[in-house]
Amino acid sequence: MDSLVDLLGEGNAGSNVELVSMAISNLCASSLNRKAFGSRCVNSLLSLLTAEVENKTGAARCACLALASACQNSPENQEVVRSYRGLQPLLDLLDKDSVAGPSAQALSSICRNNQRCQSDLMYYGGTKSLLKVIDRDPTTAAALHVAQALASLCEDNPSACESIRSTGGVSTLVNMLNSAGHPSGSQAIRVLSLLCRQSDASVEEIRQAEAKQSMVSLLSVNPAAPAAEAVAIVIAATCSKDNENRVQLAAIGAVPPLVAILHAVPDEPAAGEACRALKALCVDNYDNQVTVTKEGAIHGLAKLLRTVPTQTEAAYAANALAALCNSFTGKFLMSQGAVSALAAILHLGRDLPAYEDAAIALEAYRRSCVRTAPEK
Hints:
By secondary structure, the chain is mostly helical. Helix content is 76%, strand content 0%. Helix 2 runs parallel beside helix 5 (56-71), helix 11 (141-154) runs parallel beside helix 14 (184-198) and helix 19 packs antiparallel against helix 20. It is elongated and about 80 Å long. The N and C termini lie far apart (87 Å).
């Protein structure tokens, strides 16, 4: 590593500057080599972002990729880049289509799980600069990398989420979702799901956007994919207080792929998010309750209760079953094993996350049986 840094620092790399940068990038794929990455190497790579060298664009691209590799899961290297004011030149490169993708990759790696780097990026106006890349063309590889950078920026960071929303990020990401196929659409919905978790204002903007068909299409591609979980999060958030949205999403086919998640990954967090989405679709909506039941959701929810009875996902499943109960669906809770699965949760004890929700679901089932009992 030191000899490569010497080549860059002393200007001896000549026309091989790209090869030297890529060699550093490849070496930094190892966590041990990332530890050897220090301030000299950062300074040399940052200088390549603006240096007048042969094939300037190629050198900048390779330097960005080396920085991305070196800062991956490395708070120490992230801090070195930040302290050397490396964020600003990387943001400047976003204006150049030929370098925007690698620059976004570097920014994503530098800002991941690092509040100080995230704060600096926002201070430099980085949110707006990133969104501009997607606005230019949401179907490019650069736009995909920018969406990844936005996801790194706003995970567990309400300030970043608000920065994205307030600079028009929701409409930009919805446009990306509607314009680009998988995997760009998958990254767009991931960021939208993160915004939903942090901001009611973002939920309202997404609710009003024309994104429903694209979300359902993405949901149908692969129920086991991370994008399916993100879509379920957005559906749950946007339907929680909007019956019109519930009706529209059910009408365009949101229910079958959500049920498919329950069967595809019953022991994954995605199943819990699918439960929350199904509950949101069913609250105070008899037609959706019937549709969800006919699609086999009760069997999937009961399966989830039996698979992960001690986890939070079981509580989400019990919640969904409670929302499903009506005069038509109640009989299916018994025949498809949901009642016994809920009762088993109660027998396991009050300390379980799902205990109270299971009790509520069983009470909802009891009331549905009373409503359907014949008059004497």
